[in-house]
Amino acid sequence: MAGPQALTIMNRSVPSGAHICAFYSGPAGRDEVVMPFLAEGIRAGHKCICVLESLGPAEVLARLGREVDLGRPVATGQLELATPADAYLRTGTFSTDDMLSYWEQAVAEARGAEGTGVLRAAGEMPSALDHPDGRMEFFRYEAKVTAFVADHPAVLCCLYDLQRFGAEVLIDSLRTHPMVVVDGMLHDNPYFIDPGAFLRGME
């Protein structure tokens, strides 16, 4: 079950087991969400994973390093940076089951490491999946992640650039995340649909 502790996300206390979508516009908006999110986690002793397509690992380190000392987090593996190919597309194709296994392993590593045992992760939807079949599978995954993360000491923040994706992607992201970041503020999401109901609607 999820850990009892609350987590501070964008100056708001949320329970562990949170699944969040963040809307922003362009690289500057992405950095305003991602860098404080990761810096908060590093300071709190969380295991942090960042999966970005629009910014390489070296650039993430350079920008994040302006907010928090990264020497020990990098040396100990507290901070892990990956590309979509490393995480979402490890076998060459996207698989919901593979991704849930990826997060299971990440949760286990967080529990076994120094710190609080909490996993904090941020990731972008890969552009390779921005077609009808890819989107359908990705949002099936997003719905299942909500149920998965609710039972673990973790918070996952899924990143959606308003300049990259159309209305269909944005609507489905609202339907699959209980919480949403808009204009840099974290809100409960009134458009969220229970994962079971969402998945039945895809059949």
Describe the structure.
The protein has 203 residues and is α/β, with parallel strands linked by helices. The chain has one domain (15-201): P-loop containing nucleotide triphosphate hydrolases (Rossmann fold, 3-Layer(aba) Sandwich), CATH 3.40.50.300. Helices cover 43% and strands 23% of the residues. It has 8 helices and 9 strands. The chain has helices at residues 26-44, 57-64, 71-76, 84-87, 96-112, 132-149, 167-175, 195-201; strands at 6-9, 12-15, 18-24, 47-51, 79-82, 119-124, 154-161, 179-182, 185-188. β1 (6-9) and β2 form a beta hairpin. α6 runs parallel beside α7 (167-175). The radius of gyration is 16 Å and the shape is globular.
Defining key terms:
two-stranded antiparallel sheet, globular, single chain, 203 residues, 23% strand, 8 helices, alpha/beta
Proportion of β residues? Answer: 15-25%
The count of β-strands is 9
Reading the helices and strands in chain order gives EEEHEHHEHHEHEHEEH
Shape: globular
What is the helix content?
Answer: 40-55%
Secondary-structure content class: alpha/beta
The quaternary structure here is single chain
Second-tier CATH architecture: 3-Layer(aba) Sandwich
Q: What composes the largest sheet?
A: 7 strands, mixed
State the CATH class: Alpha Beta
Which regions contain 5 or more consecutive residues with pLDDT less than 50? none
CATH superfamily: P-loop containing nucleotide triphosphate hydrolases
- Determine the CATH topology: Rossmann fold
Instruction: Describe the strand arrangement of the main beta sheet, using strand numbers.
Output: 5-4-6-7-3-8-9
Return Rg in Å.
16 Å
Total domain units:
1
Mean pLDDT: 91
Gap from first CA to last CA: 29 Å
